[in-house]
Design a protein that fits this description.
The complex is a heterodimer of chains A (410) and B (105). Chain A has 410 residues and is of the alpha/beta class. Helix content of chain A is 25%, strand content 27%. In chain A, helix 1 runs parallel beside helix 7. With 105 residues, chain B is mainly alpha-helical. The chains are: A alpha/beta (410), B mainly alpha (105). The site of flavin-adenine dinucleotide has 36 residues of chain A, from helix 1, strand 2, helix 6, helix 7 and strand 21.
């Protein structure tokens, strides 16, 4: 019996376990997946919790329900990967030997990286929404918030779902309008980037939307510290912003297990071949999802596109064949823009988001790089697709892992 | 893409002012790009950062992040923002003749 071990039972790990269970003969291969707890969170849904659109029960399900039969789910913290001995040691004391290893341990927020962020005011008038706890606290804080200045700060790139902070601002504008207090609330978006987003064309569209909604943007704002008593946030170039409510997207890092194993870069992301998804460290280790150091977005859609390439390459590696350099950085993001509309962008390593129709060239029903209601319903439908198709490692309707230029115009 | 006369040579720059051909870089070109970005003159402290960026990019195949620069030199985060105001990552890479740092997707 040979062993495939998958570390992390989130989006990418669960999906790979389903794909590989179908692809590998159960008489020859055992598959084990490890995670520290049994709560799978639909993370894109965290965006909607602060605004009362979703509640915890809408986004949390047991991991065990989504791990297919024939795959062993082990619930324990991963202590360390020993890539010379080809084994993983778990915090519960057990050891898992592997023939092939998939690292899918994602990324986590590390608020303590910004001086003062977890000091006075943390989870009182300073919140993240990248954790369930943070999002729920923010829901209560927003309910109480009637007037004042809300500052959203992105601490440092890369972050997962780089459009989520923008979506938060669009929804905050909508939320305060609904509440009838929009004129008493000032919205400020402080980003380390030189514009609203990382890709120039999308950045100008999204920057325009922020402006239209009356959101003030502070660009190139690299946070140095937070003073929870004075309620101010400062940048390294000594700009100071005061806030009544601070929403933070803290520094992201890869898993501590990666760090402990010496397999990570400065932020504990695993150096990975950008086209084959093989780890630089060892030929029998592959990496997928947020855990990689790749210059692709950290998003569930990206994990899905990587999954198609990774399945082929794992099978090739097992058979000793050459790997396919097929991952092109493809990402596809719905950007909720408030008032039941959304923008859809589709891009890869080399091509920035272009306008057009999606997924059927010329037909749609969704439109790229522009606001529409169909896009909003696409975003809301993504939750069903996530639990039922993406995690099961099925192909998504009409979307190929390689980006298509059909139906797009430049 | 534009071609500009920098330090007496015709140099191709992309839309964001990064060198198109990395091997055209010289220290004089670095001084010139710095001057155009409002940094004049380049001091030893600037060169500590630029030299590290070039060496690290050659080893790693990608320009270093600010975190990586401050970890591997004696330049603190505070100082690097004084040396290369606003966006030190982008600015230092541009002056060092490297590509735009990734990390921002
Ligand atoms: C607010 C928000 C909005 C988002 N919106 C979108 C969106 O609209 N569209 C989109 O495509 N993506 C979106 N994303 C991003 C998406 O959720 C992630 O990119 C995706 O979940 C990454 O999958 P992953 O498997 O790499 O990591 P995860 O799903 O995070 O899984 C990693 C797993 O590894 C486990 N793990 C880590 N370390 C250890 C250890 N030491 N021991 C045991 N287990 C460990 C963790 O418990 C976790 O379950 C959003 C994310 C957030 C936070």
């Amino acid at each position: 019996m040979r062993n495939l071990v998958i570390l992390g039972g989130g989006t990418a790990g669960t999906m790979m376990s389903a794909k590989m269970r179908r692809a590998l003969d159960p008489k020859e291969w055992s598959i084990t997946i490890v995670d520290q707890d049994n709560e799978h969170i639909y993370q894109p849904g965290l965006l909607f919790i602060p605004f009362g659109i979703y509640r915890a029960k809408d986004v949390v399900k047991p991991r065990s329900r989504y791990v297919p039969s024939g795959v062993d789910l082990v619930l324990s913290e991963i202590d360390v990967i020993d890539h010379e001995a080809n084994e993983v040691r778990l915090a519960d004391g057990s050891t898992l030997p592997y023939d092939f290893l998939v690292i899918a341990t994602g990324s986590r927020i590390v608020p303590a990286e910004v001086e003062g962020l977890t000091g006075p005011g943390w989870h009182e008038n300073i919140f993240d929404f990248y954790t369930l706890e943070g999002a729920q606290g923010l829901f209560r804080a927003l309910e109480r918030f009637e007037e004042g200045r809300l500052v959203l700060n992105v601490a440092e790139m890369p972050i997962k779902c780089p459009v989520a902070p923008l979506e938060f601002m669009f929804l905050a504008d909508w939320y305060f309008h609904q509440k009838g207090v929009r004129d008493k609330v000032e919205l400020v978006y402080a980003t380390p980037l030189d514009g609203a987003f990382t890709k120039p064309r999308a950045s100008s569209l999204l920057g325009g939307l922020l402006e239209k909604k009356g959101v003030k943007v502070e660009t190139l704002f690299n946070v140095s510290s937070v003073d929870g008593e004075a309620r101010t946030i400062s940048s390294w170039d000594e700009r100071v912003l005061s806030y009544d409510l601070l929403v933070t997207i803290p520094t992201h890092m890869g898993s501590e297990a990666v760090e402990r194993s010496g397999l990570g870069d400065d932020l504990a992301f695993v150096p990975t071949n950008k086209h084959t998804l093989q780890a630089d460290a060892a030929e029998n280790i592959f990496v997928i999802g947020d855990a990689t150091n790749l210059p692709s977005s950290k998003a569930g859609s990206v994990a899905h596109f990587q999954g198609e390439v990774l399945e082929k390459n794992l099978l090739r590696a097992i058979e000793g064949r050459e790997l396919l350099p097929d991952f092109d950085g493809h990402a596809n993001c719905f950007i909720e823009s408030g008032f039941d509309k959304a923008v859809l962008i589709d891009f890869n390593y080399d091509t920035e988001p272009l306008p057009g129709r999606f997924p059927l060239p010329g037909v749609g029903p969704m439109s790229l790089l522009q606001e529409s209601e169909a896009n909003h319903w696409g975003k809301m439908a993504f939750r069903w697709i996530y639990w039922n198709q993406l995690l099961a490692g099925k192909e998504l309707p009409l979307v190929d892992s390689k980006m298509s230029l059909l139906g797009k115009w430049s | 893409m534009t071609t500009e006369l920098l330090a007496g040579l015709n140099i191709e720059l992309d839309a964001e002012g990064f060198l198109v051909n990395a091997d055209q870089w010289t220290p004089e070109i670095a001084e010139e790009i710095a001057r155009r970005s409002g940094i004049e003159p380049l001091t030893d402290r600037h060169w500590t950062v630029i030299d590290f960026c070039r060496k690290d990019a050659a080893d790693q195949g990608t320009p270093p992040t600010i975190r990586r620069i401050t970890k591997n030199t004696d330049v603190s985060t505070k100082e690097i923002y004084q040396l290369f105001p606003k966006g030190p990552g982008i600015l230092a890479s541009r002056i060092a003749g490297l590509t735009k740092p990734k990390g921002c997707i």
